[in-house]
Design brief:
Length: about 290
């Protein structure tokens, strides 16, 4: 079969200000609805939506990925791997109603970029142009990763997304944000103390906490620490594999190097499978703080 081609649509009527306006609306709503999930707020779940709407990508035929915004269809949103993301979709509903000229893929990815930046994470350059595809283009369930696995699985999984070891480790650092919930995934607990700020804490905790593999109340295995933090098996695999371990140590010791690698890997994840025509604009949004809002 001919490879699938997804070309970014250039909309000459829309400029950076139009997208910054949407960014600001999302950022202000994150700020206002700060009580969500025990005062973690909506940032982490918005990052997870951006990731899951992109993480269906398959390099072998260029299918899936963020381009078509197919998360909006029941077939994709009801994938058990997407449990809990309804809250992020509901959060974005009124934003979509107000700015209905934006595509779903652009909105899901812009929401994730906004959430990382507003949590004091790195600037993520972002490019518009994703186009809503019909339901028939929805990828089958089962393309998102299963946490009950070790390093070989993780490396294979990320290869499907065109990610090397360094990119895979950097992306996993997003687990500084948010937490796991029994009702969504059958795991429980946060990865660290600061679940709504973007830092290199995930790597520091991975190296420094006393981890113990335990069977949790849902019958799943997770690593737990005395401080009440947790790690998935796929997280812990990053210190079991020598190549991953080296990168974990680098990011634990050098937050700037983590930020730099995360920014480029996350942009790549959100743009996998999209061809950008010459002259396609790329935007770097200001945070609310930088605008004195
Ligand atoms: Zn996660 N992730 N993830 N992840 N993730 C969870 C939560 C969050 C895996 C995984 O199984 C889980 C990436 C990679 C991988 C976030 C971002 C990113 C949860 C808990 C699980 C089980 C869900 C729940 O119970 O609510 C696996 C196996 C991964 C790779 C092998 C990448 C890459 C991410 C972004 C770049 C975030 C922000 C959360 C927290 C969500 C929340 O609601 O707090």
């Amino acid at each position: 079969a001919a490879p699938i081609v997804h070309i970014a649509a250039l909309n000459k009527d829309r400029k950076i200000d139009d997208y910054q306006r949407i960014y600001n609306k999302i950022a202000e709503k994150i700020r206002e609805e700060d009580e969500y999930d025990g005062y973690i707020g909506y940032g982490p779940i918005l990052v997870r939506l951006g990731w899951h709407s992109s993480g269906t990508y398959d390099k072998t035929n260029n299918s899936g990925g963020s381009y078509g915004g197919t998360y909006r269809f029941k077939l994709e949103s009801s994938d058990p791997s997407n449990n809990g993301l309804q809250n992020a979709a509901k959060f974005l509903d009124p934003i979509y109603k107000e700015f209905n000229w934006i595509s779903h893929g652009d909105l899901y990815t812009l929401g994730a970029v906004c959430a990382v930046q507003e949590a004091q994470g790195p600037k993520i350059p972002w490019r518009p142009g994703r186009v809503d595809l019909p339901e028939t283009e929805t990828p089958a369930n089962g393309r998102l990763p299963d946490a009950n696995n070790g390093a070989d699985y993780v490396r294979n999984f990320y290869a499907r997304l065109r990610m090397n070891d360094r990119e895979a480790v950097a992306l996993t650092g997003a687990h500084c944000l948010g937490r796991t919930h029994y009702k969504n995934s059958g795991f429980d607990g946060p990865w660290g103390a600061a679940s709504n700020s973007f830092t290199n804490e995930f790597f520091v905790n991975l190296l420094n906490e006393q981890w113990k593999l335990e069977k949790n109340k849902s019958g799943n295995y997770q690593y737990d620490s005395p401080k009440g933090y947790m790690m998935l098996k796929t997280d812990y695999a990053l210190i079991q594999d020598p190549s991953y371990l080296k990168i974990v140590k680098e990011f634990a010791n050098d937050e700037a190097s983590f930020f730099k690698e995360f920014a480029s890997s996350f942009q790549k994840l959100l743009e996998n499978g999209i061809d950008y025509p010459k002259g396609a604009p790329q935007y770097i949004f200001k945070t609310l703080d930088e605008q004195d809002i």
